[in-house]
Amino acid sequence: MAELYPDTEPTKAGVVKSFTRDSSVQACIFDLIDNAIDAWHTGRLADPDATKSEHGVLTDFSGLEIEVIINARMVSVADNGPGMTSATIEEGALKFGAPSVKSSGIGLFGVGLNRTIFKIGGVGLVDSRTLGEECLVELDVAKYVEDQDHWTISATSHKYDGPTGTRVEITQPNEHAIRFLSRKSKVDRLAEVAAEVYAYFLDRGLLLSINGDVLTAKFIHVRADSPFPKIEDSDTLTNGAKILIKAGQHSDHRFSAEPKKKGHSNKGLTREYGWSVYCNDRAIALRNKEEKTGWDHVWHNEYNGFVGSVFFYSEDTEELPFNTSKTDLVLTHETYEIALDMMQDAVRKWVSFANIADSYRREGKTLENKTVTDDILAKERRNQQQKQFEKPEKPKRPPKDWMVLPPDIDVSRCQPKLRTLVFEAQTTPINKKRYTSLALMRMLFEIAAQDYLIEIKQLKVLKKAIIAARNKDRIAAGRPKMTPQERRELEPKLSDILGYLLKTRGIFGENIGTHLDRSVQDFAGHKGRMDSAIHNPRHKIGVPNVEEIRDEILPILKHLIERPDDVDLDESDADER
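The structure corresponding to this sequence follows.
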């Protein structure tokens, strides 16, 4: 019997791709800011005079300065922290997945520095200065990936007696990164988000600047004089993690039954409602209104005005429920599951109050003092006691199964029209509006597919193929070829797009292509029935059939809609169209 020795050594290209594909350019830049904050935090905790909160985090970040420079040619993040020693750099600072657990820190997975360089670069330079030493590391991404035989890189160190700090500079960014870095609107939005993500650090003295502009902490405040009692809840878990919840009414929101103030309006506040989630004071989710933070499948008017913050604290960051890029929550994390129950309880209290407050409006009463508030809460307690003796309702089918699209579709990177269609699809029940549902599915696919082809630079290829086919038909029929104006105004039909997606192998990527190809085939198979049901006045279709179509085409719809957050189709790529 011959022994076999299967090769399990990874390829650099595979490792780099797996480390970078799910992270955005913005998240990578934030990773470098996180590293600077963590290094300062760790160094200061060693000082016996440093002041900590009851949750174990520093209360003073005065003295820490982080300067971020972003343009189409480079990304630079520099700080005046303690720097990294040559031993730290040599033993793991750039190692894939090296543990990066710091006491009460905001890092964990050990992928931030190298992932950022591989995501954006180009060429990465790390210049780190400690007391007595300066280390320089330069990494050419293309050369490193091509060299499969060597996993170490060269670096130098020399004596140094100047100020400490670390500078990470990435030049010659790749085309994908340039599309983000060269857009002023993208960089401006990054700065706005950073003012919220790092609000608690900025509020405690951190000086963070982006392209020369010093950021100011941005908070959403709970109203101090609200008729709705503030909610504060906390818990300390057996794993050592602490949960703190604060919730209430938005500082600028007013219930409809409250006394009117001249010029006041709740319009424009909706985007500020919802839950914000922090891990060791670093924001992971901001103003979230989805099921994952305890809401119903669709945002209702009764939720308007609610703002809440959930704080997770732990010396062991493995007990904090954030993903590797710190852009989302790990819903299955034990710590988060416990917090979610507390969050849902807070939402139930708000909804009860909001509904009864609305009844006050209908009855002509006014919400203006504590007596009224106590009356409302007492009325709610009576309603809850009465429900205990009512016959339980027959369980209903979960409403989320009725909608054209589920609520967890990420539309933050969609162009405006597609974003509007997604919202309509998330609020359109199939069982009540079956024909509207079919039309929405068709429109969503057609628009999202065109945007996807623009993203991967294939729309021009498709248009050229259509023009060539039409010219061929025209010549055969003795007609002139398409005019320049006809070519400019050409818009691919849905059948053209479907045909191109079906015949172009690998268009959705290596790992998920088969799954999505099948979903496209299902859509093509249903297209005739969908068109007939929409356009033929005598063709009827049942709700179960519409639900079957939705279920089969949902994978491709989600993939086309949820594009990487570095891709913006609002105004760029006009030449690709």
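The CA atoms of residues 418 and 447 lie 7 Å apart.
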